[in-house]
Amino acid sequence: MAEPAATVMEPASGNRRAGGRRGPETRDAIHAAAVDLFARLGYHATSMRAIAAAAEIQPAAIYHWYPSKEAILVDLQDEFMERLTEKLDAAMGRYEPPPLKLAAAVREHVVFHDLHRREAFVTDSEIRALTEGPRRALIAQRDAYQQSFIGLIDAGVADGSLRASDARVAAYAILLQCTGVALWFDPDGPLELDRVADLHVELVLGSLGASPELIKTAISWSSDG
Fold it and tell me: Torsion over CA of 112, 125, 72 and 89, rounded to 10 degrees?
């Protein structure tokens, strides 16, 4: 197992304050600033001093929380993957048949990625900026997440409700398609996000050979969930 190269540090000061904020507020400000700068400028073009300035804290204060810039990136990526996985597990847990679990997973993936566009972009694009240990750890998290989709497709094929000659390739294609919604969806456009999620449930199950009746049920149930 890869050992992370950086970990979150508790503030050294006894009252856990920086820039007039309490501890959790300071951490949230650092996160918000880092996500914005990493998404706009890129990881390598962003300095710790720039993150501190955007978070409205003293440059030295940021080191009470994180020993390095990579530690901030690792924390952001881990938090994104943990929250996404929790949402996915909760959504899938409401159903038993594999196609309905898959529909719930597709819906949650589409919605979560659109609502957290910058965090998703930073998690995916800045994996290249990580050193070997943290990179392996993030890849392991992503592999486990992808395996959830592969397992659901395999289960659907096994019970005859879905068809796929290669569940792994199908899962990769589905995830790429669903993640891409965050790149083109316009909340001010003609479609609401829930409708876009419904369409992706239809597209995914349709591409896996689900019956029209099953697709209709899956859309209805996942929307109500």
Answer: 30
Give the span between the Cα atoms of 155 and 128, in whole angstroms: 33
Q: What pTM was computed for the model?
A: 0.85
Q: Residue 11 above 70 pLDDT? A: no
Which CATH number is associated with domain 17-69? 1.10.10.60
Span 140-169, average pLDDT: 97
Task: Using alpha carbons, list the distances in angstroms from residue 117 to 109, 121, 124.
Answer: 12, 6, 11
Burial 175-195 (b: 16+ CB within 10 A, else e): bebbbebbeebeeeeeeeeee
pLDDT at residue number 225: 57
d(CA 109, CA 182): 10
Q: Selecting from 3.20.20.70, 2.60.40.10, 2.40.10.120, 1.10.357.10, what CATH number does the domain 71-224 have?
A: 1.10.357.10
Ramachandran assignment for 211, one of left (phi > 0), alpha (psi -120 to 50 degrees), beta (any other) = beta
Q: Where are the domains of the chain?
A: 17-69, 71-224
